[in-house]
Design a protein that fits this description.
CATH class: Mainly Beta
Strand content: over 45%
Order of helices and strands: HEEEEEEE
Number of strands: 7
Number of domains: 1
Radius of gyration: 13 Å
Largest sheet: 6 strands, antiparallel, barrel
CATH superfamily: predicted glycosyltransferase like domains
Strand order of the largest sheet: 2-3-4-7-6-5
Shape: globular
Oligomer: single chain
Structural class: mainly beta
Length: 92
Amino acid sequence: MVRSASNERRHVRKTCITPFAYRVPPRVPSLLIGITSNISDSGMCIYSDNHLNEREDIEIRSSLPVPYVRATVRWIKKDAADLYKMGLMFVE
């Protein structure tokens, strides 16, 4: 039996398209802006014009409906000329 990626997820992703602010301390102490694509209890997918690195931690500085205020970049891919799509996993 072939399983789709959505069937293998532990947490259901909910569409949530909203801008949010984040920081990447200590590398980028100023606030950056991203846009969420979807959110689950374990992470979220975002778009940003700021290139982050895999395994880099960010601090979420907006009031998103998420369980934690820190997340780690799990994957990143260039989506357009100056836009990156990233998968984040929430961490305590």
